[in-house]
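Message: Just now I want nothing more than another pair of eyes on a protein record. I am handing you a single protein, as its sequence and its fold in token form. As I understand it, each token names a local backbone shape. Take your time, and here it is.
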Amino acid sequence: LGPPVPSAVSINKVLSRMQSLLRPQLRMGPHELLVNTAADVFVRGNLITIEQIFVNLVINSLEAAQAPIRVRVSTSIEGPRLRVLVEDNGPGIRAEDRNAVFDPMFTTKQNGVGLGLTSSRESARAVGGELELVRTAEGTAFAVLLPISSAEEAP
């Protein structure tokens, strides 16, 4: 999933690549993906690993909904970390499932494997970040917290 040594990665580049990868899937359905970044911030990690976290979160949102769904991705700076919020207006996660979503092999999908959120959380942690389930009144939201890096560290 990319070079083992983290470097500075542009979050705008990560999210732009994610949109490109998901464009075919979004065209097939009535879903909408909105990306709003406050500024181009560099985070510590590697491009492919961080990109895969967001691809997985958005695909989870799209697959969880029967009806058209809107997925929003937004960024904010929280101290030394960038917070990327991925939220949707889908059916949400049942209260009884909330504590298990990061457990390996846990899935609510008929053909799911149950490794997507587990591996995404591990990928975030591998670069000094975190992936958290955020309580919302509607839909589902995950916050990806990534350590901010300077542009000078970029390859």
Summary: The chain has a mean pLDDT of 84. Residues 14 and 51 are 5 Å apart (CA to CA). The first strand starts at residue 7 and ends at 10. Residues 11-28 form the longest helix (18 residues).
